[in-house]
C-alpha cells in the first residue's frame, strides 16, 4: 500500500510532501515507511516494523489521518481496497 500526500503550493516555496508505504517483509511482518520533506530538497525517512497486519494497517491509517488534519491532500494512493480507502 502506498499514499502520497502534498500541501498546497504557494509562490514563496515549493510544496511539502508526505509519503506512506506499507510492505510485508520476508518473515511475515509488516514495515511502515514514512517519508517527508519539501519537494526538490532532502527528505527524512522513518521505518516502523509491525508483527501483524492489523496493527500495521492501524498505524498506516492513523499516520494518514494525522497528515490530512495538518493540511496535506492525498494526491496518489495505490493498493487500498474499499474498506481502507480514505
CATH class, named: Mainly Beta
For the residues shown, what is the average pLDDT?
A: 91
Structural class: alpha+beta
The residue fraction in helices comes out at 10-25%
Q: Element order, helices and strands?
A: EEEEHE
Number of helices: 1
List the quaternary state of the chains.
Answer: single chain
Beta-strand percentage range: 35-45%
Architecture per CATH nomenclature, i.e. the level-2 architecture: Single Sheet
Give the CA-CA distance, first to last residue. 13 Å
Note the overall shape.
elongated
* Whole-number tally of structural domains: 1
Would you tell me which CATH topology applies? q64v53_bacfr protein fold
* Strand segment tally: 5
Poorly predicted parts:
82-86
CATH superfamily heading: WGR domain
Q: How much is the radius of gyration in Å?
A: 14 Å
Largest sheet: 5 strands, antiparallel
Physical arrangement of strands within the biggest beta sheet = 4-3-2-1-5
